[in-house]
Specification:
heterodimer, A: about 700 residues, alpha+beta, Beta-Lactamase, Phosphatase 2c, domain 1, Heat Shock Protein 90, globular, B: about 100 residues, alpha/beta, Transcription Regulator spoIIAA, five-stranded mixed β-sheet, 4 helices, about 35% strand
Chain lengths: ~700, ~100
């Protein structure tokens, strides 16, 4: 037996050595994979963001070249306006010889780009074959503190080029909107994720959906930023309480952190160790380990390096973000306007289309509104939608006649539309004081109007050519009038062409039926009806709806009295009666009466104004009341008054300032303006539906 | 503004109606003043008060202070929702006894 002892001892030593080697090997391997993954994450992230910025700049550059036609001298004020128009920080027009012939930056006028090494590289654009050239963000000659990126697009035949510059800091907003959305769903390995936060405030703009938590700030996730950002350094930290490896990348005013939980990478090593320790045949273990490593790596490659599907998903996410972030989506959109209410919604489909809506005031009494549908899908459609939306807004602000305006929009969009894309659009302008509408239909499906008496009509006025299809197309406008109580309903064909599992269409008949009994605003009820009909079937197209309710001019009652205590009863009796005439519920009535008492007594006591005017406006359709009090005394904004401490006990509590606090808290909205020599305070309350 | 008074020992219940605002509050303060002698528990019946503004709150606060100084209490009874909302907004719910 004795002879076995050295053998057993040797075997034990060998076995221990094997365990140690396996441990070491497994650990190194895990680190290697983890580092690879983080390298990839940062790289991929940079690719995505740079790709998006390049696409944006390229789009702007190409359009500029088409718009300008050839390198020509332009005043710097024109160039500045142009830069502001397309949201760029710098535009230069450079001729074939490299001379800056027009620029938004006066200091550069007449300068030769050949004298500047960085700019000289752009001369490649004059060789007649290179069409675009771009440089990454870097500290500019104009201001060393600002990182600017340049992109150039050649004029046809290399006859000079247009160069546009965009500052990194101006990306911040776009970035916050786009990236936050994308990172929520962006995977890193099996369990990894991204955190992205505003650099200054630390506020998280993304919070991975798989890690539902309450964190609002980067500091709450457990991440501690290093002294100096270094995107190549792996940091080991506890994120959401779990040991993780992180990489930090700082760009455009945001901090991005790629997080890989350690367990994912060390899990395989620990399993391997357990197998070896369990006494399985050594070679088999090693063999299976290497096999495992090879397959794991190829899986790795498959899922992360050549992930075309994932790339597409990201493109899609970006397109969707572009599409939705550009739409006004705060409702009620114009609480100050008692004459109408506008509401819109867009529901995107699985494949992103190019639906959009928009509304904006072109002057004090005219509201422009539209619904449009861009042909095509994905990023190109989203980009074209942005161009169409911006063009419509800018042209509508300068050209008041809708037919003329659409003719001009069409010309601009048709110019250089090599993508063969087009837009159907229904554009209207409402005179909010009368309900008169002038509209142009550019190939869009006709909207519906539900009259105050419940009758529903199609608005089948002249239908013109779709936008961007052909330059020179002419558009005709149609006049129409909304009466108090009427509602106009615009939509895209995604609504009527929504399908159920049997592939039947929702159709116009069902839409009419739904609108006949829909409650305001119609959009929610229509969407619910479509959902019910679709019975879970996935929809191929975006669905966009816009409802415009017209209530007519509000009822107005106004009274002016001397600013004196003995006039107060008259004022309060007048308001009482005016409120009663609107069938005002007691709770709102009480609020309005208290507001009058507080504000009017302040005016009488402190303003020094000779008289006081009280105005009550009431919008029947909205069930909203607005009380406005005007005096011509000393300028005084009660809203800037510091609120009193309402937590003191009865003995120590001073009285004062309570009235203003009550007004602020009782009404839905209160605002002060100094109008010439007058103080104007408006308070609005709406009945809850 | 005062519609009725009912005394039961040292408890006085005063019923009010109308609005308690800049116009009516000073009168109420004057009217209440002579009634408080020897009263330990003052109950103001707010059942018919439609609304109260800060001028009304001022009277309630001064009355409350007087009652506390004399070792008594003030109770506001039957306040309608619009009045209760004002008490809540201003923190008066915490210092007044509401019934």
């Amino acid at each position: 037996m004795k002879g076995w002892k050295p053998i057993i001892a040797t075997a034990a030593v060998l076995y221990a050595a094997l365990l140690a080697v396996t441990w070491e090997f497994g650990t190194r391997e895990a680190f290697r994979k983890m580092e690879n993954m983080l390298d990839y994450a940062v790289l991929d992230y940079k690719d995505t963001i740079n790709g998006a910025i390049d696409t944006m700049l390229l789009y702007a550059g190409e359009r500029l070249v088409l718009r300008l036609g050839e390198p020509q001298c332009r005043s710097s004020s024109y160039m500045k306006e142009l830069a502001a128009d397309i949201c760029m920080d710098e535009i230069n027009i450079v001729d074939k010889a490299g001379r800056i012939v027009a620029t938004s930056d006066e200091r550069l006028a007449g300068v030769s780009v050949l004298d500047r090494p960085a700019s000289a590289a752009f001369m490649v654009l004059t060789n007649g074959t290179t069409r675009t050239f771009s440089q990454p963000f870097r500290a500019g000659a104009h201001n060393p503190d600002v990182r600017r990126k340049y992109l150039g697009v050649a004029f046809p035949g290399g006859n000079g080029y247009v160069q546009i510059g965009l500052d990194e800091r101006h990306l911040s907003t776009m970035y916050a909107v786009m990236m936050g959305f994308i990172f929520d769903e962006w995977l890193l390995g099996e369990t990894g994720f991204f955190l992205c936060a505003d650099l200054e405030t630390g506020r998280l703009i993304s919070n991975p959906s798989r890690h539902r938590n309450e964190a609002r700030l980067m500091s709450e996730t457990g991440f501690v930023p290093p002294q100096k950002p270094d995107e190549r350094r792996t940091l080991c930290q506890r994120i959401f309480g779990e040991k993780s490896f992180c990489r930090e990348y700082v760009f455009a005013g945001h901090r991005l952190v790629a997080v890989l939980p350690a367990r994912e990478y060390f899990g395989s090593r620990n399993i391997l160790l357990a197998i070896v320790a369990g006494g399985l045949f050594v070679i088999l273990s090693l063999f299976s380990y290497f096999i495992g490593r090879i397959t794991a790596d190829s899986e790795h490659m498959k899922s992360f390096y050549s992930a075309e599907e994932e790339r597409q998903a990201k493109d899609l996410a970006m397109a969707r973000t572009i599409q939705t972030s550009a739409l006004p989506d705060v409702f009620p959109a114009y609480p100050d306007h008692f004459e109408f209410d506008i509401f819109a919604r867009m529901d995107t489909a699985r494949e992103v289309g190019g639906d959009f809506y928009d509304f904006f005031f072109v002057d004090a009494t005219h509201l422009a509104f539209l619904v449009a549908d861009v042909s095509g899908k994905g990023v190109p459609a989203a980009m074209f939608m942005m161009a169409a939306k911006t063009t419509i807004r800018s042209v509508a602000r300068t050209v008041s006649d809708p037919a003329e305006m659409m003719t001009l929009v069409n010309d601009r969009l048709s110019d250089g539309n090599d993508a063969e894309m087009f837009v159907t659009a229904w554009f209207g302008v409402l005179d909010v004081s009368s309900g008169a509408i002038v509209y142009v239909n550019a190939g869009h499906n006709p909207p519906l109007v539900r009259r105050a008496n419940g009758a529903i009509e199609w608005l089948k006025g002249t239908r013109g050519l779709v936008l961007a299809a052909m330059p020179g197309a002419k558009y005709k406008s149609v006049d129409f009038k909304l009466e108090a109580g009427d509602t106009l309903f615009l939509y895209t064909d995604g609504v009527t062409e929504a399908t159920n599992p049997k592939l039947e269409l929702f159709g116009e008949a069902r839409l009419l039926e739904t609108l006949a009994k829909a409650k305001r605003p119609f959009c929610g009820d229509v969407r619910a009806a479509v959902d019910m009909f679709a019975a879970g079937a996935e929809q191929a197209d975006d669905m966009t709806m816009l409802s415009l309710e017209y209530f007519g001019p509000p009822m107005v009652r106004e009274k002016t009295v001397r600013a004196a205590m003995d006039e107060m009863p008259a004022l309060s009796a007048f308001l009482d009666e005016a409120l009663a005439a609107t069938d005002c519920p007691p709770a709102i009535s009480a609020k309005m009466m208290v507001c009058l008492d507080e504000i009017a007594s302040n005016v009488v006591k402190f303003s020094g104004s000779p008289d006081i005017t009280m105005r009550l406006e009431y919008a029947k359709g909205l069930r909203s009341w607005r009380l406005t009090i005007v005096d011509s005394g000393t300028a005084w904004n009660p809203l800037t008054h510091v609120d009193p401490d309402i937590t003191l006990s009865a003995e120590e509590r001073p009285i004062g300032g309570l009235g203003i606090l009550m007004v602020k808290k009782m009404v839905d909205d209160v605002r002060y303006t100094r109008d010439g020599d007058s103080n104007v305070l408006s308070m609005r309350v709406s009945a809850k539906s | 503004m005062i519609t009725s008074k009912k005394q039961d020992g040292s408890t006085l219940t005063v019923s009010l109606d109308g609005r308690l605002d800049t116009l009516t509050a000073p009168q109420l303060e004057t009217d209440l003043e002579p009634l408080l002698g020897g009263i330990e528990s003052l109950v103001l019946d707010f059942g018919n008060i439609a609304y109260i503004s800060s001028a009304g709150l001022r009277v309630l606060l001064s009355t409350q202070k007087k009652m506390i100084a004399a070792g008594g209490t003030l109770t506001i009874a039957n306040a309608v929702p619009a009045v209760r909302e004002v008490f809540d907004i201003t923190g008066f719910s915490d210092i007044l006894t509401l019934a």
